[in-house]
Predict the structure.
Amino acid sequence: MKMKALMKTKPERGAELVETDVPEIGPNDLLVRVRAAAICGTDNHIYDWTPWAQARLELPMIFGHEYAGEVVEIGSAVSGWQVGDLVAAETHIPCLQCYQCRTGRQHTCENMKIIGVHVDGAFSEYARLPVACAWKLAPGTPFELGAILEPVGVAANGLFKDRIDGASVAVIGCGPIGIFAQQLAEAAGARKVYATDVNPYRVNMARRVVPDAQVMNAASEDVEAIIAEETAGRGVDVVIELSGSGPGTAQAFSILAKGGRVSLVGLPSAPITLEMTSAIIYREAIVYGSTGRLMWDTWYRVANLLQAAKFDPTQVITHRFALDECDKALQLTLSGQAGKVILAP
Amino acid sequence: MKMKALMKTKPERGAELVETDVPEIGPNDLLVRVRAAAICGTDNHIYDWTPWAQARLELPMIFGHEYAGEVVEIGSAVSGWQVGDLVAAETHIPCLQCYQCRTGRQHTCENMKIIGVHVDGAFSEYARLPVACAWKLAPGTPFELGAILEPVGVAANGLFKDRIDGASVAVIGCGPIGIFAQQLAEAAGARKVYATDVNPYRVNMARRVVPDAQVMNAASEDVEAIIAEETAGRGVDVVIELSGSGPGTAQAFSILAKGGRVSLVGLPSAPITLEMTSAIIYREAIVYGSTGRLMWDTWYRVANLLQAAKFDPTQVITHRFALDECDKALQLTLSGQAGKVILAP
Amino acid sequence: MKMKALMKTKPERGAELVETDVPEIGPNDLLVRVRAAAICGTDNHIYDWTPWAQARLELPMIFGHEYAGEVVEIGSAVSGWQVGDLVAAETHIPCLQCYQCRTGRQHTCENMKIIGVHVDGAFSEYARLPVACAWKLAPGTPFELGAILEPVGVAANGLFKDRIDGASVAVIGCGPIGIFAQQLAEAAGARKVYATDVNPYRVNMARRVVPDAQVMNAASEDVEAIIAEETAGRGVDVVIELSGSGPGTAQAFSILAKGGRVSLVGLPSAPITLEMTSAIIYREAIVYGSTGRLMWDTWYRVANLLQAAKFDPTQVITHRFALDECDKALQLTLSGQAGKVILAP
Amino acid sequence: MKMKALMKTKPERGAELVETDVPEIGPNDLLVRVRAAAICGTDNHIYDWTPWAQARLELPMIFGHEYAGEVVEIGSAVSGWQVGDLVAAETHIPCLQCYQCRTGRQHTCENMKIIGVHVDGAFSEYARLPVACAWKLAPGTPFELGAILEPVGVAANGLFKDRIDGASVAVIGCGPIGIFAQQLAEAAGARKVYATDVNPYRVNMARRVVPDAQVMNAASEDVEAIIAEETAGRGVDVVIELSGSGPGTAQAFSILAKGGRVSLVGLPSAPITLEMTSAIIYREAIVYGSTGRLMWDTWYRVANLLQAAKFDPTQVITHRFALDECDKALQLTLSGQAGKVILAP
C-alpha cells in the first residue's frame, strides 16, 4: 500500500513530497493513520539542513514527530490497544533495558532513538509507532490537541521539577513551549507569571494567550529592574529558560531569588559563559537540565490539568496546512511569525 | 494601666470578664492592642472546662490566641518593629535553643509554650506577644483577616506537605479549617477538590464559600462510591483529615489512591483503630502528622497566595461579638452553627 | 518434560511433592532452572493453610517465590537475555499498562499478580518467569544470595523512603528482613542502629550478624527508656516496623523523634489501635506504608551496596534442605528457630 | 584590657601583630577566649590583598574566622550559655529578620555580614561572637576540632544536598574541604568515592587520610576514562566541585551520570564556559550552588557523624603555629604544601 510522505531525500535545504510504502510494523508496534502533525524546531533544522541535522540524520528519512492519529493496525505482541483507538506519540524511543529505563527515566535512555531523526517520522499519511511510545487519547480528543501534547510536555517537564504552587515564575522565551509553560504555571497555582521574549510577534502572542502573565519585551524593557521591583528585590522563585541564548541564560540567574531554581530547557547552539559565583554559588541556586518528558508521569500530569480544563494549549496553534504545502509551512515557522503550525496529512 | 479581659478564673464551665492590669512586657516582647480575636476549638475546651483543658491550664488565665492588632510598645532588645505596626500572632512560643528550633521546626519545639494555654492570651484589650511569635501585617490589612491567619496556617501546613498542583484533594471536615484547606487547594492548582462533613450547616457553608469544590454530606451520600466513580476507581491523591473521628480517619484511607498521602490534622479525643495492611501498607500510603504552622514558611506561603488574591478566608467569618458578649459567642461556636466567630476587644 | 515440584493440592495443612510438567512459557517469559529458593512467611501461610491463604489461592498451586536460577529457555518476544544467564525473581507481576505501572510504581500495580500465590511459583525444578520480573545477576553470583534478594529488597524499600545517612535507626523485629534492614542501615551510613525482638533466637541471631547494632530483647529490656537515654530524650530519626503487632507498632511511635519517620512493613493480622494525637500528629511523624520493592530502583540500590561489599545478607541463612525435606523445612521456619531457610530443588 | 591580634592595617600584602583592646560585647554577644583558629583561603586573599579582599574589607580589620574557644563573658540578653562553655563559630552573621532567615536559610541572609571580613575576626586572643553564630561544643572537645568544623560544614553542605547512601561520589579538589568531603561521603554510606587534584602534595594527603577513596592526579591520569571504566560508562551519581577552575567544572559534568547531581562549591575567580546542552540539559543534571552551612542542620549532621566516630577531620591538620608566626603560617598555606594550618592565639 502506498502513502504520501514528506521525505528528506537530499543533503541540502528542502524536503520532497513523495509516494512511498506504508510502513510495516513489528510485533511491538502500532500503525497509525496520522491526522495532525505539528512542526517543531527540530523539523526546521532538518528542512534547513543545519549542522545539527547533518550530524544526526541518515537519508532518506521521513521527518516530523509531534503527531496524533488513529490506530489502524496492532502488532502481534501488543496488548491493551484496539483498532480505532486515538493515539499521540512520545518522540523518545526507549530501549527498556538500561539503567535509565529500569528506574523510571526512559526519557534519558542510554540507547535512545528519536522518531523523525533516527527512524521514520510522521509527516506522512501513516506512521509506525512503537507501543512503548504510545499515549492513548480519550475518545473525541481533537487531533490537533493530541499533536501538541509532546511540546506541552517539554514545558511541563521543565516546570514541574519541583512544586509551583504559590511560586513566582519567569519564563524566558515566548515561543509555543514558552506559552505552554506560562499556561501550565498559571494552572498549577503559581502566584505570578512573568515572561520575556525579544520577538514582538511572540510577545504579542503570549499577551493574547496568557492574559494574566506579565509579558515583557526584553529588547525594550528592563526586565531585571521590573522583576526586582515586583519582588521587593528578592527575584523570582522559578525560571524556565527556553531561549538557549547567552543573554537569556545569564538573565535566568540575574532575576532569580536566593535558593530559587532554574530549568534549562532551550538548547544553546554554542557554549555559554557564566559568572558561577554570583549566578549560582552564592545564590544557592538549583539548576535542572530538562529534556523530553517523563514517561509517563509528565503525560499524566498534563492530562490531569487538561481534564480539569485548567488551560487550553491549542490557543497557540496559529496556522494549518495540507501536506503538500509543506514548503510554505516550514518557511513560515522559520520566520518566527507563527505560533504552532499544524500539517494535516 | 487597666484593661478588660476574658479570664478563666474557676475550674468550671464559663469565663469571667474582668478588669485587670495591662501586661508588662520583657525585652523580647511586643505589647499589642488587640483589635480582633477569633474563637478556636481550643477556646471551647477551655470555656467548657473539658478534661483536655483541665490537664493543661493553671488558673487564672486569659485565653484566646488567634488574634491581630496594633503594636503599642516594643521591648528593649527588639529590632525591626515600630509602634503602629500591624501584627498577627503565632500561637506557639518556641525556645529557639533546642534541636527542633535550630533546624527550622520551631513549631514542634521541645520546650514549647502555647499562648492562651500556658501564658496569658488575647481575649483582652492588650496582649504581650514574644517577638519570636510576631508576624508583621502589611499596612491596611483588615484585623479580622489577621486574626484568622493562624487557623488558615493550620490548613496550609497540612495541605502543603508536598505538591498540590494537578492533584485531586479530599478534605474531611468542613469547619473553618476545612474550608480554608479547600480554598488553599483550589488556589494551589489542585485538579479537583472534594469535601465532606456530617453537619448540614457546615456542608452548606462549604458549598457557599468554595463553589468549585464537590462538597458531600457524609451522613447521606456514599462518599467512597462517589470518589471511586470520579477517579476511575483510583482514589484521590491527597486527603486532609480534620474531623479527628474514627470514621473520618478510616475514610481518609478508603478514598485514597495507591501511593497517595493523608495529612492527619484533626485531633482525635480517643484512640483510633485502623486496618493498617489495607489502609496504609499495601497502598503504600504516606501519612503526615501535622500540627501548627512552619515558622515562617507556612505564613509566607499563605501571604503569597493572599497577595495574589487567590482566595479570601474572611468569607468563613459568620459572626462578630463584643468582648462582653463572650458567653453568647462561645455557646454559638459550641453549637456547630457558625463559621469563624470574631471577638472585637 | 517432567519435573519435581512442591504443590499445594488440598485445602488443608501441608504440601505434596509431585511430579508434574515443566511449565510452558509464553513469548514474554523466561524458563528458569531453579537453583535456590528461600522460604518466606507467605509460604508458611500457604503450608499452614491459614485464612490468609484460603482467601487467595486457587488449588492446585506450586508455591515459593524467592528464588534464583539459570535461564534455560527464552520467550520469542524477549530481548536482552541469553540461555545461561543467572536470574533472580521479583515476586510482583505488573500489568505494565495501568497508571501505577506507567509512573514507576509497578510494585503497586492495579492489576498485580503474585508469583507462588496467583500463578505457579518456584519450589520446583523449573519455573516460568515473566521477563518483566527478571533481575539479571552478574555471572558467578551465588544462587543463595540471588534467592534472598527479594526479601532484602523488602527491607531496602522500607528503609530507603528517604535518606539514612547520619540518622539513628530502630528496627522492630529481628527476623531475616529485620536483620537485612539493620545491615542496610549500617551500610548506608546510619549513625546508630537499634533493634528489638521478643524471640531470643532472633535477638541472638541479630547480635551475631550485626555486631554494631544495639539489639534489645523487648520482653526483658525497657526499650523506650534505653532509647530515650541514648538520644538525649529525642528519640530515633527512623523506625522500621516489621513485627506487624500492636505493641510493636505502638512502640515504633513512642521511640520516634519529633519529625521522624516510621515505615510500616510488617503486615498486621488484626486492626491496630493508636493514640494518633501523641503518636503521629503532635510529633509531626511521617508514616510510610511499604510493600514489595521498587522495580527496579530498589534492586539497583541493593546491588550497589553489595557490589561495594558493604554487607553480606547470606549470613542470615541458617539452614538448607533438599526439596523432598520440605515438611521439615517449613516446620522449622514456623517454629521461629531459624534464620532464612533455603530449599535447593 | 588589652590583647594580641593579627590585624590588617594597610592596603598591601601582609598583616601586623598588634596589641589592641579586648572587644566589648553587646547584649546578644558572647566574648570568646580564642584557643584555636584555622587559616582559610579567604585569609590568604586578605593577607595577599587580592582584588577580592580589596573589594570587601574596610581597614583596619582583625581577620580569621574558623575558630573555637572558651566563653568568658555573656551578653545581657543571652540565655542558654554559661561562662566556661566551649564554642565554635559560624562565620555568617544572619539578620534573623529577612525572608531567608525566617525560612530556615540564615546562611544566605539578605543582609549577611561575615566574621573576619565585615566585622573583626579571630586571629586574636579574644573575639566577640554573636550568639546567633555560636555552636556549643560538648565538654572536652579538642579546640582544633572545633576550629575546623566550619570548613567541614562547607563540605557537608555541598555533599548533603540530597542522599548519598549507595551513591558513587567524585570530589574535584583535594584541599582540606575536598578531603572532608571524601571523609563525609565515606561516612554517609557512599558506594565508592573518587577524588582528583593536580597538586601532588594534596593528592598524597588525600591518599593518606582517605585510604578507601580512589584518588587520581588529574595532571597525569585520564580521569574521564577511569571513571567511565569504573562505572560501566554511566558516570558517577554525585560530584562535588571544589577547584573553582574551568577544567574542574567541565570535568564535573563529563564524569557525571545521566540524572546525576553536581554541587558547585569552589569559587571561580573568572567566568566559566560550558557546553550546556551536553553538560546539563541532555544529561538532565541537577546543579546545586552551595555556600556556607545550613544553620544549624549542617552542624548537627556533622556532629552526629563525629559522635558516631565515623570520621576524623583533624587528620587534615598538618601544621600549627603561634600567633606571632603568622607570616610563616600564611605563606605556607599560600604555597599549597600544607593541609589545614592552625594558629593558637
